[in-house]
Batch of 2 targets.
Target 1
Amino acid sequence: MSFGFTYNSPVGKWLGFIAAVWVQAISGNNYTFSNYSDALKSLMALTQLQLNNLSVAKDVGKAFGILAGLASDRLSTPVILLIGGIEGFIGYGVQWLVVSGTIKPLPYWIMCIFLCMGGNSTTWMNTAILVTCIRNFRKNRGPVTGILKGYVGLSTAIFTDICSALFASDPSTFLLLLAVVPFTVCLTAIVFLREIPPSSTNVEEKEEVKYFGVINVIAVIIAVYLLVFDISGPHGKVFSQFFAAILLVLLGSPLLIPIYLMVKKNIRENSVNLDVEGNNNIVEPLLLGEETVKKEVVVVKEDNVVAVVKVVEKRPRVIGEDHTIFEAMRTLDFWILFVSFLCGVGTGLAVMNNLGQMGLALGYTDVSIFVSLTSIWGFFGRILSGSVSEYFIKKAALPRPIWNAASQILMAVGYIFLAMALPGSLYIGSIVVGICYGVRLAISVPTASELFGLKYYGLIYNVLILNLPLGSFLFSGLLAGLLYDAQATKTAGGGNTCVGAHCYRLVFIVMSIACIVGFGLDILLTIRTKSLYAKIYASRKAKKASTVLS
């Protein structure tokens, strides 16, 4: 296959990363449920508990992400992307058929299956993207994760604003976009994204940091652009079309990096091309350790002949080395990370899934602004925490989990503010939840790879994100659904509704307590991993010093 580049070249490497960014920019469809949930509720005459259980079914799809994790060690990146694209096309396509009135509403349990398929489709996309890109840029895990997860956060606002600009926030058109656009982008990424050897020199690593900085700047421009559009009020048709066109140009602008590298390569025709050979499945851990312990045993035989026998014993894995999923689950650190992750993302998902009803309860007729605010500020939380945490690891050996702790306590304060239901509290609450949820995702992903290695990372990542369906079930399906229905009044047709600050007050109080528990766990993990990050810092410093001396 010839496209004027090889996959192992800098041009091919960055074309693959840009394609990954595009996939992430359209793979946050799991967070858009609030944009069409009210249409489903009225069309199917659902109670709030039934509606919340539909959102849980969507998030349960992530529980089957274990399949994507298992496949990541056996199938190629293009195949995994293709599976995700097709599954999303079917899952959201059927929902579009129902909401658009093309077919009659399906039975409740069948709708749950198709929502589950839509939710599961993103696990295939995210697994293919994260595992491949973290392995390709393993020395810059923080920035890579921040950028990719940042674009996932922006994807909700991208879909919401484009639909609002071009189709007046029509729920059926929105679902059609969710079905068609991710499938098309995945087909594009299949062409370019491959797993290749990571950078091997400090020069290459510095170039990566420079280009990541460019992508960060572009991403921030996109986020600010979306934010300005959201807060600037109603817009005319021509202006909205112009907005959408500029947004597409901004999304395509990271292509300037591989174009620049291609031009640079052509100009330097006489330069020496260093072809790096190696296994495409490079999964070298950050800290290399001996897997075996050698012992000498003295054996005295019956004829008084003394022999020394060397016995090789395999020692247990230590944090920082490659772990299988079972080895990881036997460590206390895994469960501390797992439960603290549940406290953060579970409560955050409850807010995102219920933003529509929260806005209506407080008297807002259009809740799309809150969905966009959560998405955009979630982007800032993801992209900044990834780069900032990486900087402090390299400069001061500061453990990455400390940033999770900071986000948990801020999120607890945000929930208390939402419970007070002051004027404008939903605006502020949407921003705070978005930021903290973004930090939680962007920090936990590289933390898991640093604690348990990259060799089996695809499966470990998908076990970790079981917290998404679990948290959605506990905090959204049970907590928010039951407490809302307890306050609501029945409507004609079998549904119900609740208006007033009391509808979600107790929900917010319970979730703030959960975040305080998560804060304590993150502090504990920070203390337990302090020595690991000190070793990572020392290892990087030693390599840098040896390079300078040579």
Target 2
Amino acid sequence: MPLRILNALDTARTQWYHVTAVIIAGMGFFTDAYDLFCITTVSKLLGRLYYYDPATHAPGKLPHPVNNWVVGVALVGTLTGQLVFGWLGDKLGRKKVYGLTLILMVICALCSGLSFGYSKKIVMGTLCFFRFWLGFGIGGDYPLSATIMSEYANKRTRGAFIAAVFAMQGVGIVFAGLVSMTVSKIFLMNYAGKAFNVDEVFSTEPEADYVWRIVLMLGALPALLTYYWRMKMPETGRYTAIIEGNAKQAALDMGKVLDIEIQAEGEKLAKFKAANEYPLLSNEFFMRHGLHLIGTMSTWFLLDIAFYSQNLTQKDIFPTMGLVSDAKSISALMEMFETSRAMFVIALLGTFPGYWFTVFFIEKIGRFKIQLMGFFMMSVFMAIIGIKYDYLKTKDHKWTFAALYGLTFFFANFGPNSTTFVLPAELFPTRVRSTCHALSAASGKAGAMVSAFGVQQYTQDGNIHKIKKAMMFLAFTNMIGFCCTFLVTETKGRSLEEISGEDEQKNETQMKSTRPVSGHQDDGWD
């Protein structure tokens, strides 16, 4: 029989505090997405401001290595932050390190808009330094938000609540485009320059140097507004009871925020804790959860190669799609405005709905089937784009191209981009849940770095043959992700302790949980 405190959390009716927790944790993801993806809207502006060479008679452009670091350095920081904060979340507690991530994000978002000099090397160096530490703070939000939400939620709506937290990433991406579009338009109304082919020098408006700084610094605002409420959240009942062994305090904390009655079970809790103290690096963990960890790490790695390639390279693909004008025919601010507008439209119509489809259907369809469907459909649409790229890039078919491109975003989010976040928060024991989620998320960011430092090389110059190769490569990685999904199991409708095997240590059925299954709820479980 499960502990009463855990059963009370699993069977609690959905209450207002569950919604509050989604908003508090979700605002962190809103900030994360805004900070990570707004760089896409300003990177071309940075090139025109700091890398214009009169001898080329072409708009300034960030050199490939500089572009890769400006766009990708935050991902390096995110990977590092995920591992550090994920481990600390298991060692010190979820709440103790939860506020620190926001403090880092606020400080570094503000500092990203500052420069300690005027030369392009100093400006880019300052930007990369603070965006690394911004990413470090962002990284901590992944395992902590997912773990906190999974441990607060009841088993009937747990998947929907975790997915709703992650869905705020979609809102953040939409706002990254909207804020960039709005700020650039305000400056265009007052300081519009001439097209580059009319005036090469002043087509890059001097006032544009304020625009990219304002856009980056505004990322501090939502994190700052969330800090107070995040500090008011109590430690999760599962961590306090199972890890700290303090059932009385867990009951007291949860009683303050949830309308449930919890009885302390000191002796039974001590036995429960003693039976689940095997560490991450142990044969016991590998036998029980090894395949699941390989599954969550591999699928998130493969997904993020495609997902971040879509988001980080869209500025290079938009001109080919005809959604933005040729750089020589517009000013620097107009180029930023058109890029932001295209990003906003794609995000609003393709990216954003996918997240919320997952929220509404994850408890009906299940994580496993949604992930399989998403990987498969992404692969199909990217293969079509890769094979028919010459046909789709023509002016007559640009909206067909945009629709196919938008559908890849939709099925990424109504698919593995959401489920790879949910599953690691459910599959593993409380003692190592945050660390295992961090390992899975860090694998994802390793995939994002493949995108930032590898796939981007094929799209930056707008070379048709290279873009076709990139699309076919992404279609292939998605099919591998489809296959690796069979290493994880369905978690819908079960308690965290039932999923992880923490309830019945001697039951033979728990050994079956480490086997890959077909995705049905009762496959591999008696």
